[in-house]
Design brief:
By secondary structure, the protein is mainly α. It has helices spanning 3-25, 28-34, 39-53.
Amino acid sequence: MPLTLLGIVFFGGVMAIGYLFYGLFTDLAKVRQRGIPYGVPICLVGGLAIAVSAL
């Protein structure tokens, strides 16, 4: 998998997980009103799909 795609998957996932933890430790209802971090499953499943398609 190219380094660019690895960076997108890794850093996108880290940022989305960080946003999720921020919501859990502050006020999750307020974070949900602004948007649920769908980036976690998108980055993880997207990275897996790219890795499988490269096989």
